[in-house]
Amino acid sequence: MTIHKAILLTLLLIFVFSLTQVGFGFIFYKTELLPEYLQKHVGITTVISFLVAYIVMFRFFWKPKAEIKKTLNFRNYELKILPYLILIVFGLQLLDRPFWDLEKIWNYLNYSEFETDFSTFNGFSPAFLYGTISTLIISPICEELFFRKFLLKKLMEQNSQKIGIIISSLCFAIIHIETPFNLFPTFIFGIISSLIFIKTKKIGYSILLHFLVNLLVQTLYVFDFTFDRWLLDLNFNVIYWIMFLIGIGITYFGIKKLLATPYKING
């Protein structure tokens, strides 16, 4: 696969998802086709839109057929990798922090103040349920299958491994461009996930890492971002940056140990 095609497929994925969302939005808010009591379930449209977008991409451009069943067969997976995945998850949480906080850091340096604009957890509502399904199930499985199992492998058929990793990770970052501050963290995650997939030859490990990263974020949200608030209360002092360096160290150690571990390739 060429670099241009990989980027175009990523943009097409975004287009199909957005088009589906617009269609559902029209049905929910501009028509009277649905009863009022279903309005609180509008969050399910995001789940369906994600599924529609990825199914379209798989059906018309990958056509994996039985390969997905084989891919999601978790026999012969090894638990010895789990501690390293957990280390990477916690390391990334610290490593990514300054990139998420760039605007706050800028405001603090220039105006000596910044806003703590955290989303507030409003209980286990239907919206939370559908968001959790998207975050913990749909995203880890579909995104890893598309960006690593499909895009990365196809890119490496016509390009070097380095180019394949960089471009597939860039495409992965593009779909998470809700805010520019999220681009670098998702790009770094894409590189790590790609390295794990290439090393183990099994996408299940990448799916598990993705799930654990999202699970930690979702857990922090439920508990009102207590850790995040503590970090921001440091006002970007020396301890804040030491935590960032610790995050780099933990992430590097986890990746190094994981890549040095022998794995069963068959099964």
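That was protein one. Protein two is written in the same sequence-then-structure order:
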Amino acid sequence: TFSYSSPELFPVSYSPALIIIKKKTHRLQKL
């Protein structure tokens, strides 16, 4: 079972897509 509630715990190489999504959401928050 995977805990998507805390993706930060997963390694970067595990799923780089999560980082892209985080960056996009971060930009939306800034706007």
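The first helix runs from residue 16 to 30. Keep this in mind for the problem set.
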